[in-house]
Design goal:
The complex is a heterodimer. Helices cover 0% and strands 52% of the residues of chain A. Chain A is mainly β. Chain B starts with a strand and ends with a strand. Chain B contains no helices and ten strands. In chain B, the strands form two sheets. Chain B has a five-stranded antiparallel β-sheet with strand order 1-3-8-7-6, with no helix packed on it. Classes of the chains: A mainly beta, B mainly beta. Chains A and B meet through β4, β5 and β10 of A and β4 of B.
C-alpha cells in the first residue's frame, strides 16, 4: 500500500518552454502533497506544500510564478516549471501524506534537463 | 534553518558485516525523526518514524535509536546483505515540514 507514482521519470526540454510533472497517490487519498528538489550532491529541499483544493505554500526563495502547483484532487498534484532555464535542471520528487499521519510516501522522482 | 548532518557520507562493507550510521540535528523544538531507504531509480522507502527520546525501533535486521536531548539518531544494520545497498536518509521535522540530510550511501559487496 501507499504507492505514489510520478510522471514523467525524465524529461528534456528547451529553454523557455514549460514542463508539467504529475504526482499521483495510487491507493490512498492524500490531503497534502509535497514537492522537493535535489541538486547534485545535495539533500532533498522542500519547495512547496500543497493541500487539496487550496493554494500551495512555497518555501522561502522558491518563485511561485515559476513553479506552479495544482492539487485539484485527493490523488493528483502537478508541478509546472514555466519558462524553464538551464538552472532549473534538477531532480524533482514529490511525496504524499495521509491525513493524520506523520509519514510521507514518495514518488520515484523526475529528472529534468533544460537545454 | 535546520542543519541536519549524516555521517559517514558513504560506506563500503562486505556481506555479513554489521554497520551503523549517524544523523545529527538541533535538539531544540524536536518533533519527529524519519529514516528512509533510497535505492537508485526507486522511491525512497520509509523505514522508521521516531518521536520519543530513547525510542528504539526495529525492522528485520535494521534498527534505529533516538536521543532527542543531544540531537542524534543511529541506524544499525546487522549482517549486511547486497540488497541493503542504498542511500539512507534521515529527516527530522514536523508533520508539515521535513528537513533532509544528504544521506549515507551504503554499498555491500559479496
Amino acid at each position: 500500500g501507499a504507492v505514489v507514482s510520478q510522471h514523467p521519470s525524465w524529461v528534456i526540454c528547451k529553454s523557455g518552454t514549460s514542463v508539467k510533472i504529475e504526482c499521483r497517490s495510487l491507493d490512498f487519498q492524500a490531503t497534502t502533497m509535497f514537492w522537493y528538489r535535489q541538486f547534485p550532491k545535495q539533500s532533498l529541499m522542500l519547495m512547496a506544500t500543497s493541500n487539496e483544493g487550496s493554494k500551495a505554500t512555497y518555501e522561502q526563495g522558491v518563485e511561485k510564478d515559476k513553479f506552479l502547483i495544482n492539487h485539484a484532487s485527493l490523488t493528483l498534484s502537478t508541478l509546472t516549471v514555466t519558462s524553464a532555464h538551464p538552472e532549473d535542471s534538477s531532480f524533482y520528487i514529490c511525496s504524499a501524506r495521509l491525513a493524520g499521519s506523520y509519514e510521507q510516501y514518495f514518488g520515484p522522482g523526475t529528472r529534468l534537463t533544460v537545454t | 534553518i535546520l542543519n541536519v548532518e549524516q555521517s559517514p557520507q558513504s560506506l563500503h562493507v562486505q556481506e555479513g558485516d554489521s554497520t551503523n550510521f549517524t544523523c545529527s540535528f538541533p535538539s531544540s523544538n524536536f518533533y519527529a525523526l524519519h529514516w528512509y531507504r533510497w535505492e537508485t531509480a526507486k522511491s525512497p522507502e520509509a523505514l522508521f518514524v521516531m518521536t520519543l527520546n530513547g525510542d528504539e525501533k526495529k525492522k528485520g535486521r535494521i534498527s534505529a535509536t533516538l536521543n532527542t536531548k543531544e540531537g542524534y539518531s543511529y541506524l544499525y544494520i546487522k549482517g549486511s546483505q547486497p540488497e541493503d545497498s542504498a542511500t539512507y536518509l534521515c529527516a527530522p521535522g514536523t508533520a508539515s515540514k521535513l528537513t533532509f540530510g544528504t544521506g549515507t550511501r551504503l554499498q555491500v559487496t559479496l
